[in-house]
Records
---
Amino acid sequence: DAKTTQPPSMDCAEGRAANLPCNHSTISGNEYVYWYRQIHSQGPQYIIHGLKNNETNEMASLIITEDRKSSTLILPHATLRDTAVYYCIVRSKAAGNKLTFGGGTRVLVKP
Amino acid sequence: EPEVTQTPSHQVTQMGQEVILRCVPISNHLYFYWYRQILGQKVEFLVSFYNNEISEKSEIFDDQFSVERPDGSNFTLKIRSTKLEDSAMYFCASSERDIYNEQFFGPGTRLTVL
């Protein structure tokens, strides 16, 4: 799987949009970008995934650049409950079903 | 909303003892996984299971570990002879399909080996 790079931490204000960047410059054409989060030692929680088009669901939006070398997860209106570690994961079929977690970005939502 | 459940939430055991961690995946899911997270470290893949056999395992998943689906609902992880370094959170996950399908994680079992 392609390696991903995320900032180790970031703060955001409650009620504002949180924009979480992820670099995956070695991504190949058949690799998807997945985002999970982990709230304080709970099990990781799936957020969203995409291949090349922007995606939106009830939790977040995923913006993937045209060259697919980076992406941004957007939490449109961050709440205190969004404080968590956010993981950007690139998956390919060749790598099998496993998820390979990196260090993620520790997001602290402040009132 | 259906969810993955795990029991117990916390297990304390003595080094060398056997432990069995239990998981109930989401009912219509066909793919099952175990991950672990040592305190302060990354979440690590252990094993994936499909159609009553292991489909993939990591280097961590050595002969001390085994998995089983003893009935139609439970999925278990057994550690035969626990070591101090097995102390970790163990997460079970399941997915409806394989590649490119989201995995749903349980709340975890905290294993403490003394």
Note: The longest strand of chain B covers residues 43-50.
---
Amino acid sequence: GAVVSQHPSRVICKSGTSVKIECRSLDFQATTMFWYRQFPKQSLMLMATSNEGSKATYEQGVEKDKFLINHASLTLSTLTVTSAHPEDSSFYICSARRPGTFTALHFGNGTRLTVT
Amino acid sequence: GQQLNQSPQSMFIQEGEDVSMNCTSSSIFNTWLWYKQDPGEGPVLLIALYKAGELTSNGRLTAQFGTTRKDSFLNISASIPSDVGIYFCAGRYSGGGADGLTFGKGTHLIIQP
């Protein structure tokens, strides 16, 4: 079964509003989670690393103030898209790695964001 | 960063046919992963390979870690309609990115009944 849960699966919002996406590890504690963006028929693009108890680290070109990340607990990371615009419409996916494993990432089911 | 070349980009096959796809790189990787992504879903891990030359099966799927550590292939035998989706390879190398992985661009598998 799923080990990483993401919510909501779909969201439609109006331009200028903010949207929060949740990512939960279901049966393990994740000190680190990752957020990706995926455009249609493209591969996953890493946006940022969510670190429990400290600031997120962002990949080059990703706006920190636009994509706010909070890793409030060992099982929950949130991505907030602030002041959303139509160009922020995309598929957002989170992932986490089980403690003690070094490579295989488990992904959430993704969130389809549409900004009108 | 390191580049992974995944091919083919897309495949149109008949149900029941075998499928083969691969990923190559000019750099050495120490782990290879294969994921499948259904439309509107997140990627699901199919097979993980940790040693050069390793051959691993998961049902009708078989994947191998190339002996040069620069490539990997995934085979699907006797394809069925639910095999449709996008298959991604991912590799890990020393000094990799924050998530430790480099992803291929994906192989779109389309099955004609």
Note: The mean pLDDT of chain B is 91.
